[in-house]
Every structure is written in structure tokens, then in C-alpha cells.
């Protein structure tokens, strides 16, 4: 096993463990919130139960998971970890109702970093479902953007290959996208200059030309991918 494969395997395992932790903590934050016992004195209120601080631990765990999983999820990272956290909270509410700890009409507090208010369990469920749905939308949108930027699906096809390239020129087309000329050498060493449309961000990044092996000069079969910088370095 190469060093790179070994590192990715360990990182994947760490992400799986962090995702499990995120689920458990956010599930506990709602499942145990109604039965958390608080004590108050002149300095404020507190509790020695884990459910009372579970949201704070959950936020920290979610952020850590986001940093760890960004290598794999890229643009979908933020939405995915938000959806996971909200989904775990939803499951906790439903399990608490099923176990008779609360009812849908029970009014309860819920702490995030600060008190989030007093609402019924039904209200908290509606809020949690809304956050989960928003997270899913952001994850899908971010994933689509990443797939388009890296041309990942096209690169998986056997009739396409990649080559290090440079971009020349810029003619605005719409929004942040414009037409450029991508210059690269194919597997036979032949030089090609192909017009393509790219995001403006690609102008300041190392890029790859993703082209058809049989038709390397075909603009309709050529795309520009913006991979991670390290992927262009020599091993």
C-alpha cells in the first residue's frame, strides 16, 4: 500500500468515526433534552448531564468532520454535515416521543451556544427538518459545482484522458464564465489549442485538459478541470 493510499484510508476511517460521533451527539442532544436536570445558583445555571452540553459538543464535532471530510466531499461538505447533524436531531426527537419521554405538544428548551427558545416538540421537529432540507440542497448544489469544476464524471470514462494545460485569453460569456483557449499536448505529443468555456476562478489555478483520446482537438469533447493543486505535483 502506497503512502498516499494509506493516508486516504486513515482519513476515511477518521471521517467514518467522526460521522458516527456527530450522529450520536446530536441524537442525544434532542433525545435527552427534556429530562436534563438543571441546577441554578447566583453564578448561573448548569447541569452535570451530557445532554445539556451535547449541542456544543455536536457543533464542534460537526466542524471537525467538515474539515476532515472536505478532501472527499469538496463542495458538498458544508451541506452534508449540516444535513447529517439535523437528521440526527430529528431522529432523537422521534425516539424521545416513541419512548414516552416527551409528547409532540411538550414545550421544551433547546440549547445551542445560547438558549434557542421554548417551543413544542412539533415546532422543533419542523425546524430540524427545515435545516436538514436546506443542508441537502446546499450539498447537492455544492456537489454539482464541484463535479463541473473538476470534470470528475468525464474523467472516469475510458475514452477520455487528461493532460496538464494552460489557459490563454479571456472573453466574457455570462456571469463569471468566459471563453478561453486551452493549450495542451496529447499522449502522442501533439500540441492542441482548443476553445472552451470556464469559470473565471480557473484563470488563477493549475488546470488539466480533459479530452477525447480519439478527437483531442474537438471543442465539444474537451473540458477544463481544476483539480487540487497537489494532484499536479510530481510524486
Structural features, described:
This protein is an alpha+beta fold and 235 residues long. The chain is 47% helix and 25% strand. It has helices at 3-31, 50-73, 77-98, 121-150, 152-156, and strands at 39-41, 44-46, 107-111, 115-120, 160-174, 177-185, 191-199, 207-212, 223-225. The strands form three sheets. It has a five-stranded antiparallel sheet with strand order 7-6-5-8-9. Strand 6 and strand 7 form a beta hairpin. The radius of gyration is 24 Å and the shape is elongated.
Summarize this, please?
The chain is of the alpha+beta class and 235 residues long. It folds into 2 domains: 3-37 and 47-150, no CATH class; 158-232, OB fold (Dihydrolipoamide Acetyltransferase, E2P). The chain has helices at 3-31, 50-73, 77-98, 121-150, 152-156; strands at 39-41, 44-46, 107-111, 115-120, 160-174, 177-185, 191-199, 207-212, 223-225.
Strand order of the largest sheet: 7-6-5-8-9
Q: Determine the fraction of residues in helical runs and give it as a percent range.
A: 40-55%
State the major sheet: 5 strands, antiparallel
Q: DSSP strand (E) fraction?
A: 25-35%
Number of helices: 5
H-E order: HEEHHEEHHEEEEE
Instruction: Report the mean per-residue pLDDT as an integer.
Output: 84
Count of all domains:
2
